[in-house]
Design a protein that fits this description.
Layout: E1 4-12, E2 19-23, E3 26-29, E4 32-33, H1 35-50, H2 56-69, E5 70-72, E6 75-80, H3 85-88, E7 90-97, E8 100-106, E9 115-116, H4 118-122, E10 123-128, E11 131-132, E12 137-138, E13 144-149, E14 152-155, E15 158-170, E16 176-179, E17 182-185, E18 188-189, E19 193-195, E20 206-211, E21 223-224, E22 232-235, E23 247-248, E24 259-262, E25 265-268, E26 272-277, E27 281-284, E28 294-297, E29 303-305
Parallel strand pairs: 3-13
Antiparallel strand pairs: 1-15, 1-20, 2-3, 4-6, 5-15, 6-7, 6-15, 7-8, 8-9, 10-13, 11-12, 14-15, 16-17, 17-18, 19-20, 21-22, 22-28, 23-27, 24-27, 25-26, 28-29
Amino acid sequence: MAWKYLPLIYRVLSPIHIGYRSVGIIDRTRYYVPSKNFWAAVTSRLTPKLYPNPKPGNYKSIGDLIQTHFRFSYFYLATASAEDLSANLRFYLPKYSKRSTIFLENPKKQQGDSEANVEAIFIGSYVSTGLDYARHAAMDSMLHEIEYIKPHVLDHGEILDSYLVGGVWVNPGEMVQIDGSTILIKERPVLNQLTVGGELGYGFGRLELTDVGIDCLGLSGWQVKEESQNDLVVYQPNKRTQILAHVKYKNGQIYKGSLEPIVGREWNDEKGAGRSVAKGFVCVAPGGRCPASAYEIDGRGYWSVVA
């Protein structure tokens, strides 16, 4: 069957920390959620449902299944009141401008760009340290601060709920079905409740699916290459230059944006999850610009220019 795109909107139920980089004692968070985090969240949620006592290999096989049938977009921050989501939804997309990445409010309330201070609206932090009970004092070198995305914010003078807007391409098969607006894997709905990011042991990262019809990123209008099976190739209709994901850097291709090295811990067949440091690569960060008409999206959600 062919790939199908479904827009998704998640309500943020608890603080979210998406690891970015450390500055001194501060662990910074990203101001969006990459698709890899959603792949990991779905894998983590589905595996215990299918295997009562899951082993490391079970997570690996389910993770491969998700990569074969799903391609998540990146998800971006939004605000709205729970009473009327469609009427007052405001979302914030990145744009590279004047040698830095800014976030623009959508829908615009005025002509031209409407830059928003996303950090002031959405980002909070907490500080903690270990305790030395023998000295009745804080332990040395244990003070740290964690940034997080707040579940409730003050935006335009209103107390509003935080949301994440994005979507997913689904390639239905024997084990993956689409029932109306519900995605089933082995007859189990898996996208309704997810936990993403870090600090999950402290209750962070809880998401609830609230809508599957509002396409904030405009990806429903992108065409999918007909012969795409395991590989997903998408064509943007108007050759829009704004990038909404990490795009792998390629010599000779024209880009304008911030370059970011991507590296992380991956699966190791002998040692298990997170025990192997993956080979890094350089990407143009979301919000950059690239005059491309087609992208290939891999199983982790990274984009590559193909035309």
